[in-house]
Target: Phosphate ABC transporter ATP-binding protein
Amino acid sequence: MMTDRETAPKTDEIVLQTENWNVYYGDFLALKGIFLNIPKNKVTAFIGPSGCGKSTLLRCYNRLNDLIPIFHAEGRMTYRGQDLYGKDIDPVQVRRRIGMVFQKPNPFPKSIYENIAYGARINGYKGDMDELVERSLRQAALWDEVKDKLKQSGMAISGGQQQRLCIARAIAIQPDVVLMDEPCASLDPISTLKVEELIHQLKEEYTIVIVTHNMQQASRVADYTAFFNVKMTDDGKRQGYLAECNATEVIFQNPQEEATQQYVSGRFG
Ligand SMILES: Nc1ncnc2c1ncn2[C@@H]1O[C@H](COP(=O)(O)OP(=O)(O)OP(=O)(O)O)[C@@H](O)[C@H]1O
Model:
């Protein structure tokens, strides 16, 4: 059996690193002993059965769990070598560098243009706003579909377009990392493929971590895949842990752990 320390990719430049990371909700230890490296300009997918802590870990990376009063974490999590949970770290600044796209598209009830411009403006963007809006929408592969209706509501477009608008909004503030929590869960197959193509392009500029329940999606988009699992504790609690992380083709074709093999071949989860 591999040790946890051996589960992380080592060859690439590392952007996010966790060492012996434990997450509690109240006194419930939801995620235990995570050692994981997230490499630069790659897509890392988190897969695993429900409740294994994929979203919990993802939300740790941009301090989003801070908003949950019963959350607390132990261990070390660094972003480019800096302690993400250090006393002098401003979570708002963290979220500027490490953006997030959620499962359900959540555009602001504002125009398509303002969906991009608003965040950029409150983040102090001083450049040409028209240019930023166009560039962000182009990067999100949405420009051609919305260029003639920038003043229309961002909520009056299809779900797939809304999700690409949310991605455009996330990248408009020029983050370093984009976290995606099941970004295609509410999309039709064609929109899903568009978002997957987009993820491929975005990794040229950004580091991406994606939670997905869709194993085909992980195999299509991810360079690395981390398989999380749950185990029953003696007192009957379901505790999440990182079973294995490796190059995606290894996880899908030649995993080291029996549970990974069973999960990727659809035998549980
Ligand atoms: N806000 C919260 N308060 C208390 N417990 C929570 C909270 N959020 C998550 N949990 C618990 O933490 C564990 C991990 O949940 P999490 O949502 O991270 O798992 P997941 O792998 O993303 O699951 P899914 O695939 O179903 O979305 C679960 O036992 C869950 O019930």
Observations:
- Residues 4-264 form a domain with the Rossmann fold fold (CATH 3.40.50.300).
- Residues 19 and 76 are 5 Å apart (CA to CA).
